[in-house]
Amino acid sequence: MQEVIEKSFGIISQQAVAMAEYLEDKEGRLPRSYVKEKDEIVTSDSKWWCSGFFPGVLWYLYEYSGDPVHRKLAEDFSARVEKEKYNTYDHDIGFQIYCSFGNGYRLTGREDYRDVLKVAGESAIKRFNPELGVIRSWDFNARLWQYPVIIDNMMNLELLMWNYHNTGNQVFREVAVSHSDKTMEHHYRPDFSSYHVVSYDTLTGIPHKKQTHQGAFDESLWARGSAWGLYGYVVMYRETRLQRYLDQAVAIANLMIDHPNMPGDGIPYWDYLAPDIPDALRDASAGAIMASALIELSTLTEGELSSKYLSMAEKQLTTLSTPEYLAEPGTNGFFILKRGVGHIPQKSEVDVPLTYGDYYFTEALLRYKALKGW
Ligand code: GLY
């Protein structure tokens, strides 16, 4: 694993620095994906839900290298995302601001970053409805969904818990706990697979629709959604020590690892129930998110369970560091991982690099390194 980490960070460093150089004169732009056929890097502005991931990769690179050049790049690209601290148009502020400024604050202690995180926390809770007990994810499709909450929303709670710990304001914890509890109640089936979208009836508070948006079909097991849920409950257990969140994370992890459709190399099909398995595409991003969550979960569990989670993460990181998934330096539009699956039902970003795959892969490598004290 030491070799896997060193080799991967060699590539992460070359790719991330090359990406930063490519974007240097493209004001306000951030990497989104890559179209291989045209050799074209697709960029976004800060409003895209993924805008915080590239700054986050740069912060992790700085954490690994300690190189002030990497810190400067991380600061410059975080600045491109800062205005999203006012985001109240959707729930993605946690991804946007915590992955960038959360890491930046953790590594530098900069007071101005602390202020960004506080403003972002205030923005995030504006989308919480106390009657329903959940944070609203999206505002589109209003004719179909009264109050849609997606499983991905569990990933925004770390920002709230940071605000609870750093301001002492109980409201942040209450919102995060309420959202987590309602999600456990309404998103999960008895086998701990999850619906992607649950829309609440705003009068009764009871879901009126449970379906998918990015998965294969409503009752399917969309791999990335499941990984978001796993990661979210690991975070919520770390932050609250409420046993029910650990139980939830363990149950989701076991489902994902022990599922008969989990391939032997640990990288899930984009949907565990995709109709064309074994020919279905894999999703490197789901594998990376899962690996990062499992490394942390291995530290929160003991004995066989802990070993099971760590060895699965080792397998996943080893697979992701093979040429099948890890880019050759200078290729892949300067992204790190290949073979991510964005949104198959909309035929968007299919079998391409994705910034969130890069972010969680880099995070997982660092988590593994820290765990071993290397
Ligand atoms: N909706 C965020 C994702 O594609 O995972």
What brief labels describe this structure?
globular, Glycosyltransferase, 374 residues, two-stranded antiparallel ribbon, binds glycine
Helix-strand layout with pairing:
Elements: H1 2-23, E1 30-35, E2 40-44, H2 53-65, H3 68-79, H4 93-108, H5 111-125, E3 128-129, E4 134-135, E5 148-150, H6 157-167, H7 170-186, E6 197-200, E7 207-211, H8 223-240, H9 243-258, H10 284-300, H11 303-320, E8 340-343, E9 348-352, H12 355-372
Antiparallel strand pairs: 1-2, 3-4, 5-6, 6-7, 8-9
Helix pairs in contact: 1-2, 1-12, 2-3, 2-4, 2-12, 3-4, 4-5, 4-6, 5-6, 6-7, 7-8, 8-9, 8-10, 9-10, 10-11, 10-12, 11-12
Bound molecules: glycine.
Glycine binds at residues 152, 214, 224, 342.
Largest sheet: 3 strands, antiparallel
Strand content: 5-15%
Q: In sequence order, what are the helices and strands, one letter per element?
A: HEEHHHHEEEHHEEHHHHEEH
Distance between the termini: 11 Å
Instruction: Please estimate the helix content.
Output: 40-55%
Compute the number of strand runs: 9
The level 1 CATH classification is: Mainly Alpha
Annotated CATH architecture: Alpha/alpha barrel
Q: Describe the global form.
A: globular
Rg calculated over all Cα atoms: 19 Å
Ligands in the model, by name, code or SMILES, are: glycine
What integer is the average pLDDT? 98
> Order of strands across the widest beta sheet?
5-6-7
Q: What would you call the structural class? A: mainly alpha
Q: In total, how many domains does the architecture comprise?
A: 1
Low-confidence stretches: none
User: Count of helical segments?
Assistant: 12
The CATH topology comes to Glycosyltransferase
